[in-house]
Amino acid sequence: MSFNKNNPNAVGKIMGYLKQLSTEMGGSEQTRHAQGDEERLYRTRGPKYARVPSKPTLSASTTSTSLATSCGSQGTLVPTNYDPIPEHVSTESSSEDEQDSFEKTRRHFQQLRQISLGNEFKYKMEMEIKDENLRNSVPFVRQLSTDSVKTKTEYDNEDGTPYKSTTQKLFLWTQLLAAFAVSVGSMNVGFSSGYTSPAVLTMNITLDITKEEITWVGGLMPLAALVGGIVGGPLIEYLGRKKTIMGTAVPFTIGWMLIANAINVVMVFAGRVICGVCVGIVSLAFPVYIGETIQPEVRGALGLLPTAFGNTGILLAFLVGSYLDWSNLAFFGAAIPVPFFLLMILTPETPRWYVSKARVQEARKSLRWLRGKNVNIEKEMRDLTISQTESDRTGGNAFKQLFSKRYLPAVMISLGLMLFQQLTGINAVIFYAASIFQMSGSSVDENLASIIIGVVNFISTFIATMLIDRLGRKVLLYISSVAMITTLLALGAYFYLKQNHIDVTAYGWLPLACLVIYVLGFSIGFGPIPWLMLGEILPSKIRGTAASLATGFNWTCTFIVTKTFQNIIDAIYMHGTLWLFAVICIGGLLFVIFFVPETKGKSLEEIEMKLTSGSRRVRNISKQPENIC
After folding, report:
1. Among residues 103, 123, 190, 476, which is most buried (max CB within 10 A)?
2. Which of these, 507, 480, 468, lies nearest to 585 by C-alpha position?
3. First to last CA, the chain
4. What's the rounded Cα separation, in Å, for the pair 444 and 394?
């Protein structure tokens, strides 16, 4: 039934009048709500957004013009060149179809207008959010862009400097200078270790020295280094890393001058003790300094430079010792601390030490020097501050906290690495390389063999430098362990056959080959990595104290091995000694597999958070995804 007032049916007429009356009084409930929304939008957004006429008494031309004006800017319903429609069109005289058509058209326009206004408001809000997200995402987008070098952004951060990619372009020159400076100092450590091998061959000529005293020439240095390691921890905390390192240059020179001018064995002992104390101090200070100044992307490669230069010092001792006697060789050693001291003057203190002393501006200046003037350092400074705040919040005595549940995993990993590093017997091989070749009866000259071992030791560390940030720490430790186990077993078999009077003349090359592979394996893994990880895995709160403990423990093991090496040989012969070292290497391999975490590419803050969280097994750190931003 049609509800029109012109309908002859009475009910139809009544319903038609009611419908018209409802329309004139404001339309349907939905329309009234829509009008209320329009009124609110009009009041809040201004006259720019004119309401669509809602009453049917308005002309069609006015409705079209209003819609064209208000909606045309939004790209919706833009009417052009409309023919004028008579202003007064009586709705009462229109037909039912015209009435329905007009009503539908009006409601349609109202809905479109409401949608348009709502969408515009929503659109602007979304654009504001997207604009903010864009500001935050620009660094990541630039990082992933293959044309990131050419890309520039106008977005600024809080301090007014342009945003950079999160993994920023590395400014390596200053970091390389810092690593090179401490590495030159590491030559003193290597030279002190390698000095014994060539020196003891000529000491008997000018000094009245016994066989037992010769063992003390080799053993006093690591024993004194034990003391230096214990003293060095408090020194790097109170004086700073840089001042502690620089302070060893003068005592190093004094120690070598005592040895060079020695007229009796006591002076040699005194010089070795002084040099040994300095060796212990710098052994813990170097990895801490490198760990706190070098970025994670190159910390593995540059962190091995001290070990590489330490091996250079061993090689220098072997090379120069083949031409000079023990006294002149000591004069040569006295000259090494000079360039080391001069280079350290150019480098800054570590930012982390400054932060630990609440000297934030100096920390910022140091970090700026290390990272470059055009690099955004705010995130790194924030991480340093947060890490230090967390360390300060825990409070308490650092020494008492060493073996607390929070820090025990990191401390035990450091001690374990130092234990297996030294009990592989490397220092016994380095200290007594010439004597080992004499005992082997090899056809290769003992001095030449020592030089070859020194060259291999030198080159292999640079191989490790190229591989450590590609393969990771644990893979190199695996390779190192397998190489040492294989060669120690083979060399032990050679000495076993020789001990049992079996002719091994045809295999005279085997001792040199085994020792070369043994030194190569050690130098790419268990040689440098324990020292590198010493500066990586120890939490900042206990870093100085724990590094002191680990260094002292390392030199204790070194002293035990070098001092008792000859006694062990006398007890179980050379083959038994080498096989004992091989068994210890197997234990070291198992220790690495089950307990040592992978730290490649991770910041010190990430490593500390994982090791001290206590929520997962320690080795699971290697399975965590690397943070890009």
Report:
1. 190
2. 480
3. 70
4. 59
On whether the pTM is more than 0.85, the answer is no
Reported as a pLDDT band with limits 50, 70 and 90, residue 569 is confident
Report the amino acid identity of residue 324.
L
- Alpha-carbon dihedral sign for residues 144, 145, 149, 154: negative
Please say whether the dihedral angle defined by the alpha carbons of residues 420, 426, 431 and 435, taken in this order, is positive or negative. positive
The helices-and-strands tally (H runs, E runs) of the chain is 27, 0
DSSP string, 320-374: HHTTS-HHHHHHHHHHTHHHHHHHHHHSPPPHHHHHHTT-HHHHHHHHHHHH-TT
Residue type, 595: F
State the DSSP string of 32-72: HHHHHHHHHHHHHH-TTSPPPP-STTS-HHHHHHHHHHHHG
Residue with tokens 């055009």: 374
Where residue 62 falls among pLDDT bands split at 50, 70, 90? very low
- For residue 537, which of 400, 423, 619, 414 has the smallest C-alpha distance? 414
pLDDT digits (tens, 9 = 90+) for 98-138: 666 667 777 766 666 666 655 555 555 556 555 555 555 44
Long-range contacts for 265-273 (Cβ within 8 Å, ≥24 apart)?
Answer: 265/207, 265/208, 265/209, 265/213, 265/217, 268/203, 268/207, 268/217, 269/216, 269/217, 269/220, 271/330, 272/192, 272/217, 272/220, 272/221, 272/224, 273/220, 273/221, 273/224
Distances (CA, A) of 490 to 456, 497, 513, 518, 626: 19, 11, 10, 10, 41
Asked if 322 and 228 touch (Cβ cutoff 8 Å), the reply is no
Q: How far apart (Å, rounded) are the C-alpha atoms in residues 590 and 592?
A: 5
The 8 Å CB, 24+ separation contacts for 551-554 are 551/225, 551/228, 551/229, 551/232, 551/233, 551/280, 551/283, 551/284, 551/418, 552/226, 552/227, 552/229, 552/230, 552/280, 553/229, 553/415, 553/418, 553/419, 554/229, 554/283, 554/418, 554/421, 554/422, 554/530
C-alpha 604/C-alpha 537 separation (Å) is: 7
The phi-psi region of residue 603 (left if phi > 0; otherwise alpha if psi is between -120 and 50; otherwise beta) is: beta
pLDDT band at 173 (very low <50, low <70, confident <90, very high): confident
Tokens read off for 450: 């020592």
* Digit-coded pLDDT (tens) for 444-492: 676 777 778 778 877 887 888 888 888 888 999 999 999 999 999 998 8
Look at residues 181, 198, 317, 196 and name the one whose alpha carbon lies nearest to residue 249: 181
CA gap 366, 348 in Å, rounded: 6
Please say whether the beta carbons of 234 and 285 come within 8 A. no
Which are the contacts of 400, defined by CB distance < 8 A and separation ≥ 6? none
CA distance 279 to 31: 89
* CA nearest neighbour of 117 among 56, 38, 191, 186: 38
Those residues with Cβ within 8 angstroms of residue 423's Cβ, 6 or more apart along the chain or in another chain: 557, 561, 581, 584, 588
